[in-house]
Design brief:
2 copies of one chain form a homodimer. Chain A has 6 helices and 11 strands. By secondary structure, chain A is α/β, with parallel strands linked by helices. In chain A, the strands form 3 sheets. In chain A, strands 5-4-1-6-10-7-11 form a 7-stranded mixed β-sheet, with helices on both faces. Chain A has a two-stranded antiparallel ribbon with strand order 2-3. Chain A has a two-stranded antiparallel ribbon with strand order 8-9. In chain A, a hairpin with a 2-residue loop joins β2 and β3 (about 30). In chain A, α4 packs across α5 (about 185-190). The mean pLDDT of chain A is about 90.
Chain lengths: ~220, ~220
């Protein structure tokens, strides 16, 4: 069994949705505390990355560090607090309090044969996805965005966390100095293999206010 | 104002999730009846495509036809019931009962200058999406699926219905005889321009049992 540490990243301000959901209460406990606890399924220790100036609470983590301007920066700061002799690092979003022990176990197990640098849990894409010629947020002011192609859904996955990495590969990937929406993208960029294990539909990411109410429902069920 | 007909497609059996959600009750009314009603925002008449052998109920539609083996077949059968002189056809999923009048108006308006063959409503992609080397449903039996690339999320949209089409272009697209997860993909395949208008986060597609409970919540809010 490798030495595993987890980095839980709660760096986001959640500005678009009226405040960070990771500090909201879910079933009477902070979302971030649930995310930290979930990592204990596989992690010997948990580093929690909090936005700078957050409350002094450690939410049950072993180490707390201050986040950076981007998600990638925040994970990088958490990674810097992981001892050199740790073999596997699991990265998890604080806004995913309902990740199961099975998901954590699966991403770590996918690294066991030493032939992959990372593993992510993911769901098959169920929506129709299309590539467009400009960011959809631009709206119709500069003309409508136009479809470039429909993405092959049968070969596309919707990625969640937890994501597990060979520690040395993740460190190398972060030294690229790039920014990405997940750590696996950086690991892909250094040429390492990233495996995909089945995610869980209940492992939702709390982004909108409605998500929190939905999570309460899932917790009750 | 063009003559607009809607085709509401309820062809799916919903086998994966324990029965078709389109016939469930939402706020005391059948989901499909709500989807038909929503089309009235723009449609002069509504053709409803039901799975063969369904109840004789018309759910408020003007015409009911029997669906085919695939979604594309079902839309095609609905389209065959639309008179030749109709200028714009709006296609809508029966499992999307909460589509707003604004979404219907937006997709029809996007065709008004005559320079596009279709328009879809869509949301910016918020999840990290990755292309994989094999269907994720295959699981780990033939080895783990492996990531091929992380998709550029900033240029990707998650497509909803309603989708509006120049009737003649949609008919031509369906004559290709291909199957696709949405009608816009067929229209793209005949080389017509498909525009993207802003979708609505509340316009969810009811696929899992949990979605229905969530939709009840949205309806109450």
């Amino acid at each position: 069994v490798p030495v595993v540490w987890a980095v839980v990243v709660a760096g986001g301000s959640g500005a678009r949705y009226g405040g960070p959901k990771q500090f909201a209460l879910l079933g009477g406990r902070a979302v971030v505390a649930r995310a930290v606890e979930a990592c204990r399924a596989v992690a010997d220790a948990v580093v929690l990355v909090l936005p700078e100036g957050s409350a002094a609470d450690d939410f049950g983590a072993d180490t707390v560090v201050a986040g950076g301007p981007t998600r990638t920066d925040s994970v990088g700061r958490g990674l810097a607090a992981v001892p050199e002799d740790v073999e596997v690092v699991v990265v998890h979003d604080a806004a995913r309090p309902l990740a199961t022990a099975a998901s954590f176990a699966a991403v770590v197990a996918a690294l066991a044969d030493g032939r992959a640098g990372g593993a992510v849990c993911a769901l098959p894409a169920v929506d129709t996805l299309k590539r467009v010629d400009r960011a959809p947020e631009t709206g119709v002011e500069g003309g409508w965005p136009v479809v470039v192609e429909t993405i092959d859904r049968s070969r596309t996955v919707v990625v969640q966390t937890p994501q597990a990495f060979v520690a040395e590969v993740l460190r190398r990937a972060h030294r690229l100095g790039r920014s990405a929406t997940d750590d696996a993208a950086l690991v892909e960029a250094v040429g390492a293999t990233v495996r995909v294990v089945p995610g869980d539909v209940r492992n939702l990411k709390l982004t909108t206010p409605a998500d929190l109410a939905y999570a309460e429902q899932l917790l009750d069920a």
